[in-house]
Amino acid sequence: APSLTYAPVGRSPGMETTTDTRRDEMMSKLKEGKKYLRLRDPQKAFEEFKEALRIAQILGDPIEAKKAARGLGASCHRQRKFREAIKYHSMVLSISEREKENTGDTEAYGAIADCYTELGDL
Questions:
Q1: Is the pTM for the entire model greater than 0.90?
Q2: What domains does the chain contain, in order, with CATH numbers?
Q3: pLDDT above 80 for 93
Q4: Which distant-in-sequence residues (6+ apart) come within 8 Å of 50 by Cβ?
Q5: What are the GO BP annotations of this UniProt entry (predicted)?
Q6: Which own/partner contact pairs does 25-33 have at CB distance under 8 Å and 24+ positions apart?
């Protein structure tokens, strides 16, 4: 019947689940973090990416967690918090290794090298 709609078991059509709400919030935080980086406000960007990472971890979403970690690293780098930036860029690499998904690894290695250069350790 063409007028019928289907919903997953236990869910009414149009009913938003907590997971959907959290995913939307996470995506919004990632977008806001990027906006604040563009506006040269790395502290606000850090706060947005930190919350996005927290939500991604709750949802078990490693791809979005990598994006948040990458943003956290960039935010720290721009605040000259190089050791903290290295921690977040290394998190990107750890997630990649665990998930066997290498997107963003080249950038993470480059960012880590930049941090060590700034610290005078390279």
A1: no
A2: 18-119 (1.25.40.10)
A3: yes
A4: 68, 72
A5: chlorophyll biosynthetic process
A6: 25/51, 25/55, 26/52, 26/55, 26/56, 26/59, 26/61, 26/64, 26/68, 27/64, 29/55, 29/68, 30/64, 30/67, 30/68, 30/71, 33/68, 33/71, 33/75
